[in-house]
Design a protein that fits this description.
mainly alpha, globular, 172 residues
């Protein structure tokens, strides 16, 4: 699915100009971060080139605004990065992104559901890459932890679909 039609250069160009514009007022900085996050998340719904563009936007967002506190959005940025790398079969980058998430979050969980999803993508990436049994246990533990949250059905369904799609030998 293409997010922007290939012949829609006007709109994509205008949006890219908006994304590139310098943000001079500190007041708008958090809104700007949220806008770029939303735009990048939409790109993740597209084809490979758009997913790559979305991931690149998120990586630039993390480096450009690293001095600004946007902790309430951090887990959203990381879940989008994990989804993007996972969609591109770049499991090594999933692992690297997970390590960055752990380091930057310092044990503070903003959104427990996002944290579970980030861990799930990490464990599945590791299983696909190595098929080590420890990740089977971790996926199963994550599935059980997901049962304790309000969004449990969504998270557990995601885990079930991933294990079925990748033939991960678990009976959940």
């Amino acid at each position: 699915m293409k997010i922007l039609p290939s012949n829609d250069n006007y709109h994509s160009g205008k949006l890219n100009q908006t994304l590139i514009m310098s943000n001079r007022k500190k007041f708008y900085c958090i809104k700007w971060v949220h806008f770029r996050l939303a735009w990048s998340a939409l790109l993740l719904l597209g084809e490979h080139a758009e997913i790559q563009k979305g991931v690149d936007n998120l990586e630039k967002l993390m480096t450009t605004y690293q001095q600004i506190t946007f902790s309430e959005s951090m887990d959203s940025i990381f879940i989008c990065l994990m989804i993007g790398y996972f969609a591109m079969d770049d499991y090594k980058s999933c692992v690297d992104t997970f390590k960055r998430y752990i380091k930057l979050s310092k044990g503070r969980i903003v959104n427990a559901e996002n944290d579970l999803e980030i861990h799930t993508y990490y464990y599945v990436s590791q299983w696909i890459s190595s098929e080590r049994k420890q990740y089977l246990r971790k996926i199963e533990e994550n599935y059980q932890r997901a049962g304790q949250h309000n969004s449990r059905k969504v998270i557990q369904q995601t885990i079930l679909e991933m294990t079925q799609y990748f033939n991960i030998p678990l009976s959940l």
